[in-house]
Records
---
Amino acid sequence: MSRDDLTFGWFLPTSGDTTCLGDPAARIAQSPEVFDEIVEAVDNGGFKYLLMPVNATCWEATVVASYYAARTRNVAPLIALRSGYCNPTLAAKMFATLDQMSGGRLCINLIAGISDDDTRADGILDTKEVRYEKMDEEVEIMKKLWVAPGAIDHQGKHYTVTQAIEPKPLQQPFPPFFLGGGSDYALEISAKHSTVHLFWGDKPAVIAEKIEDIRERAAKYGRRDEIQFGMRLQIICRDTEEAAWEEAYRLIAGSTKFNLANNRLGANAVEGIRKTSEANRRVWDLLEESGEEMKIHPHLWTGISTVRAGAGIAVVGTPKQVANTLDEFVDAGCSSFCLSGYPHAEAARIFSSKVLPYFEGRLAAGLPQAA
């Protein structure tokens, strides 16, 4: 695995930010001004992409992404394609149009939904299995529409499409696809379609094993060497290790375990998420295994998982310690890092100014290349 051509992305918290996950009074409400500060830090900070989240409390991802694609010059929005939410012909046209209008700054995040409860609340009654079936078919249709010189003829289980569209994407053959998930469904979709499979945090040695498993799956589609891998991680970085750990524990001070700060149902969402999200089960298993200090590695901390669904594993330490820990994941086979921290603008500036210099000369010139 090459240690060069690394890409770093950041997260835009459109459901709101905070300075302390355990204190409701510390919440920073959504606003264009809050988003502007974060996006400016990311666009000028050496990051390649910006993840737009989707759940009931988030501002709509495609609209926000399109707005910031017009106001930035460097970063590419990473926008969700939510299985079953949008006709694939329309999705292909929307994404290709934005790719053209932004000068090739677009990534697509494949999402089947974190829980059946959330998707049902949105009016999507499909089971997780059906959502992944639709996702597979939707991506297949989009790829066909983007590369075909004329009308396609797709006769599938969920969709029939006999259409040609314009424009085609500026990125060739199409924009990169990201997917984060730990179920067999997710791994198979990634093996078949993803440019980058994102893991939600784990021990580097475990990630190396998972990468080999996905490469074996990808080999069935002739993509063993094409698929790339990344980590979705939180960053808590300070000039001294003591200060970094103080900040980590302060960030969740006063919190109630599993009263989720990033879900509208709070603690009531946990059981539904456990039932349908293998990736969340793994993160929460790591939390249970990590003991009182909540460490799974000298600089990997599970504490944020007590109050956040999804990516709750944090890298904690000095700039050099953070960089060295990320390099352990590079050695395991990862080439991309989708990061976040609290509050997000400050954390992005710290990472950009103090950690990214350790990767000088190893950063990719552009986005991960779809294949």
---
Amino acid sequence: MRKSDCLTRNPSPKWTYHWRWVKLMTVATAMIAGVSCVPSIQPTVEKTAPVVTTSPPPEKKEVPEGATTPPPATPATQEVPLPPLPAPGPFSETKILQVGSRGEAVLALEKRLTQLRYDVGAVDGRYDQQTWQGVVAFQKYAKLKRTGTYTLETQKALHKATYPEGRHPGLGLPRIEIDIPRQILLFFDGKGLNRAIAVSTGTNRKYCEVSKKAGKQICGVAQTPRGRFRIQYRIPGWRESDLGKLYNPLYFNGGFAIHGAPSVPAYNASHGCVRISVASSKWFYDTVKNGTPVVVFD
């Protein structure tokens, strides 16, 4: 058949019927698809979301100006065993230590916490705010009173302590585990447990505040999302958000990030983000790569 025949010849009744049938089926399919995409008009019920077992589909979102996306993390297949801890020997009580304390007892405390992978910052014999964070992280993991003070109770627990253990080894290496009840983050690098960090997550309470950027009122529920995610993008340095300042934020679910904050109390106090100390956020930002799995669980 010549090209001109395709353009000028009238279609047969058989083909006319066929194309009418195809058009009818196309319209019907579109109507069904449209109905299935209509959101429910029933009122929603507020509840705590359970930990999901599958990764949510990636969301299309606008990445803030200044965000960077370094290469994703390369997963490892086998964890390198941690070095064996020395035998604790007999328990020896020391004096109560707290912020402002100095000396050999503080130095021994910092060495022991660092050995167990708790982040105390510089091991220098000075009980500063970062040492306080390390003590709180240990108290959280050991389910002790979260005082940040090296009490007799904490001394006894630290004397017989072992390495913190993750609960989601199936995610492989590297990975980030955020334990909401304990308010602690475990970071596993390509070899295994790297660091245990105290965090402060969402309060789970409703809030209404005036945006520090737009000047408009913002209301919501201060809840940290549970589930499995990945580090998606990051912004270096300080960033002014609607609800406050974030340092070195690493975003894992939309606007939710793990970020440094001037205040990281021993309890959950954020709008939904995962706060860590500014000191911890410096090495955390430089060490954790985009694509690193993040699991948040109760």
---
Amino acid sequence: MVNHQNRKWYLLPIFLIGMWFVSCQEGELDMDDNFIYTSTYTSLIDTVTIQLSTIVDTVKTTSTGNALIGYHQHPIMGGQTAQSYFSLSAPSNFSWDTEKEVFDSLVLVLRPTGYSIGDTTVDALFNVHELTETIELNDDGSLYNTNSFAFKETPISTESFRPYPQKEEEVNMRLDDTYAISIIDFLNTYKNHTDKNSLFEEDYKGFVINCDTTQTRAAMAFEVSDSTSYLRLYSHTVEQEKIEKEQTFSLKSTTQFNEIYAHNKDIIFNQLEDKKSRLTEQSTDGMVILQSGLGYKFRVDLPSLNNLIELETKGHIVKAELRIHPNMDIMQTDELPSTLYIGDIYRANEIWGYLTDTNSNLLTSVLTVDRMYHENTYYSFDLTYYINSRMQEAVVDTDQGLFITLPDDDMGSSLMWLAVNGHSITNNNSKLLLYYYYYDNE
């Protein structure tokens, strides 16, 4: 959600508190003779130290309803490839007249969702490879962007086409005739066999769709459902006239998943493979990264949180706002994700869960876009409740921090990304803003 309204905060200058130099001015709260007179100082503290770090986690890519296929040259992390795996099952209503029916073709049909990233003005080259290894789910019933299964080197289909994802034009890939006829022969031979389904899945384990990275310059998402991704068998019979026939074979959506990986291991972000590790903003030129398909998130640590506890004895934090500034030297406005999510994370990057608002809804960001100068574009999170709750702890555990991520719906089925300025850089840095009322008891 984009917020173009200016926030109205009336701040009074000059007040020095603790380790921060902030501005304030003594004010009077005079509501009537029947009320108690109170002197207050109003301060904005914008120098609280925060630490940003890039982290990575595996991404569940099964049952997303999207097959992500293609290649993208990322401006920071280099080449990235997505390939999608499908398993087959024996069709339940297959019919074939061995005396009269003539095979024409077996075609894999894919329909774009409309999502793409990269250059769609050049032709893409997709390949279909037959699997030699059965797709098996992990113990948790899922598959992730890091999973892969063996396949034959020689493709059973190659198709060059111009990507038009927004038009959602079907991509049709004709499979090798020898492969197709072998399926027909198998189904005719075992049509009455009690173990037909299991025997079929042993012989025809499925396929993976990938791309030629020397030609393809974009990654696209395709719908995965019985009506949008399937095999279509074309045949005909010749009697008094030619009669054309079509049969559709569904693909298994429960085992379809996307493998997503980076090519350039010399780039520091691509060396982050251990989910317990982190890359501090100081080690990556003051920048951290989010990306959906490869599982990049970033964490926000608050090492100075213990120093804020003494504020509670003298006043109250009325608003805490975390501002996350995208690196607009790299990002384009239309590339910015509309929404970010925030949650609790612990010492070894153990994610505890998402933060919620006072109505128990997931806490999401508000995006403010500076369309004129592109300098004051930022995401904001209202952390008032979170910060005040943490300050109730006797000793604040600074191993507990926050993580920021993209929506779950985008994880595993896109290469959406965001480059963010850390706190340590000079201009347009991410920061925590505290709006503080100080009560003068003297």
---
Amino acid sequence: MLLQTELISLNKGDAVSHYLLLKKCEVRLTKAGKEYITIELGDRSCSLGSNIWDNFEVFYNSAKTGDVVKVTGTIDEYQGNLQIKISHIRVTKESDGVSPVDFQVHSKRNPDVMKKEFFDRLEIISTPALKLLMQNIFNEDNFALYSTAPAGKQWHHAYIHGLLEHTLEIIKICDLMSDIHPEINRDMLICGAMMHDFGKVEELNFNGAFEYSDKGKLLGHIVISAMKVKDEAEKISGFSEELKNCLIHLVLSHQGKLEFASPVVPKTLEAITLYQADELSAKGNAYKNALATEIRGDAKWTKYIGLASTDLYNHGIEPDQEKIINKSLFD
């Protein structure tokens, strides 16, 4: 374990002498046409940007995204955002005794508990063909990978075991909606929830820094997931063609809009439910993490967050009070 101060606890003017994960490294041009590199560096607590204006060629040619680097410098500020002013940076050597795995964030939930929740829910799927399909797909080897994967590279549930955590949240939302609207085919919806992001296990490399694989860039997780459903359903004798197509539709439409990379928009009651459940889980997690990592000191507001298209406000109201209010409403 690295014994160094977390980036999130550093303030303007503080010294930096850290091992950090190189999350981005790009060559850009100033308005005058001069090359510089912009980089993003992070530990488990947060990420900060930096620019190197001169004499960066040796570092740029030796470093790649996902490397661990040793950085010395100070915390600086630009346009209200903290960044690292680097005095020296180098790629680590084996003798440094650090690895990209040292910088991976893990779900705060117990993975064994989540595994039990997942298979307990799978066990009560009542449609025999769907239950067999899920059992075949989530065999021991597949589930080991699935339960380790993050749900994304940076926006939501972007940590080890994040995909399983995200999926369980969606399953709970879908079960609630099925209670409210009995017209929903609950088994189909739950299987769609289990499969919607299955392709992330191949879309992302997550042995160190989270990066897209070649297959992920070429196909994307939606197509990978849909292909898996099609291939495995066709191995089951008598599996309904309509059921197969409706389940594949859930996967293909789960991002809701064509401009959000869904090949089709939701066209069934189950599909619109899954899309909204996915949105709620993803954005709830993303906003929660942004509030935890982007607000410093006594500030109430985060910086403007591009993926949210807004800055976020921390009201400071204790959640225990909300639990009391919610309990009184539903008793």
